[in-house]
Design a protein that fits this description.
By secondary structure, the chain is α/β, with parallel strands linked by helices. The chain has two domains: 3-105 and 112-236, Rossmann fold (3-Layer(aba) Sandwich); 272-342, no CATH class. The protein is 29% helix and 30% strand. The chain contains twelve helices and 15 strands. The protein has helices at residues 3-7, 16-23, 43-48, 64-70, 116-124, 143-151, 164-170, 184-198, 205-208, 238-247, 250-258, 274-283; strands at residues 26-28, 33-36, 56-61, 76-79, 86-88, 93-98, 128-139, 154-161, 172-179, 219-221, 231-233, 288-292, 295-312, 318-333, 338-342. It has a seven-stranded mixed β-sheet. Helix 6 runs antiparallel to helix 8 (184-198). It starts with a helix and ends with a strand.
Length: 343
């Protein structure tokens, strides 16, 4: 892929005029689910869904900025890798709109690589319900490689050329068909048709193939037959996780349970004895500013280990070392600007 195309992640937006022409071939029933697994900014599926009511639109987009824009015009959008991170129920969508990236899949240099147009087709075709409609927009050069897969799985298979001006720019064709296992004879005819078209010189395609939108043939997009639907990403999104736990109150609960309380918020059940106060001072829990008789002090408590040496034995020929811990309280007298050690 050229560098510019790589920057676009292989994304080539379907021209609005072409989308409008394809829409003319579709009759969408009420209660339909439409899906575009490389939806870009969602414009294509949004235009198609304008033809009826009770239509739910689903999109998957890898680029976060395009996914955000798509979420404003489609009902459900996932920002994830449609090949590795996307999960959805099979046979649950009446229309699969597929304008995949035009590139080779990534992988090890010694690994055989396939065209992404074919990877997307094989991975997402099972999402279509029986009699569902596939709209597959690909470069002419890829058609022969897709022929084996498409020919036996689609009925009423048609191949349309982009309008002349758009075709000269993109060299793309539109494959449309209904999901139904074709009889052997029809499958052979489909395969021969696709291979024959793929061998046409590019400059002759708009003249020899029907232009999309100019043939009087329509496909009925069937209503959804499954009530329950899985449509999710397995990608962990920290931002989305944060928004979720913040909205449902979990985040505040965690903070309340894990944030240490300030010492001045802890109230003892009874008055403290001198020994208790000494321990609190030594532990540092009472560190901070205090005032007495209008004078300000900053208190800091600590515990140090000291070693006492004493003579032992009958004649004092031995030295005995004894370790003990000494509480040291220091205070900064702000008025006199002096440190005081409280013993």
């Amino acid at each position: 892929m050229r560098h510019v195309a790589q920057q676009k992640m292989g994304y080539y937006k379907t021209p609005v005029e072409v989308v409008e022409r394809i829409k003319g071939h579709l009759r969408i029933e009420k209660g339909v689910r439409l899906i575009d697994t490389c939806c870009g900014e969602g414009e294509a599926l949004a235009l198609v869904s304008e033809t009826g009511k009770g239509i739910e639109t689903y999109g998957v987009e890898l680029d976060p900025e395009r996914a955000e824009k798509a979420s404003q015009v489609l009902d459900h959008v996932l920002n994830c890798d449609a090949i590795y991170e996307f999960r959805a129920s099979h046979e649950s969508f009446g229309l699969l709109w597929l304008n995949p990236p035009y590139d080779l899949e990534q992988g090890d240099e010694f690994q055989a690589k396939q065209r992404l147009e074919l990877v997307f087709l094989r991975r997402h075709f099972p999402l279509l319900q029986p009699e569902g409609v596939l709209v597959y927009i690909i470069p002419l050069r890829t058609l022969a490689k897709a022929a084996g897969f498409l020919s036996s799985r689609l009925a009423d298979l048609k191949v349309y050329a982009f309008p002349t001006e758009e075709f000269q720019t993109f060299k793309q064709v539109v494959v449309v068909g209904r999901k139904r296992m074709a009889p052997p004879r029809e499958a052979v005819q489909n395969r021969e048709l696709l291979r024959k078209i793929s061998k046409l010189p590019a400059e002759t395609v708009p003249r020899l193939l029907p232009i999309v939108g100019e043939e009087n043939f329509t496909y009925t997009v069937p209503a959804a037959v499954k009530d329950k639907l899985i449509f999710k990403s397995i990608r962990f999104d920290p931002d989305e996780a944060y928004r979720t736990i913040k909205n449902d109150g979990l985040f505040e609960n965690i903070l309340a349970l894990t944030t240490p309380r300030e010492p001045n918020q802890i109230r003892p059940l009874t008055s403290l004895r001198q020994g208790h106060v000494a321990m609190l001072l030594a532990s540092g829990l009472m560190n901070g500013d205090v005032e007495k008789d209008g004078r300000r002090y900053t208190i800091k408590g600590s515990v140090r280990k000291v070693t006492d040496v004493s003579a032992g034995g009958e004649e004092g020929e031995k030295e005995i070392e004894t370790d003990r811990y000494k509480i040291v309280i220091k205070a900064l007298d702000w008025q006199n600007r002096a440190f005081i050690e409280i013993k």
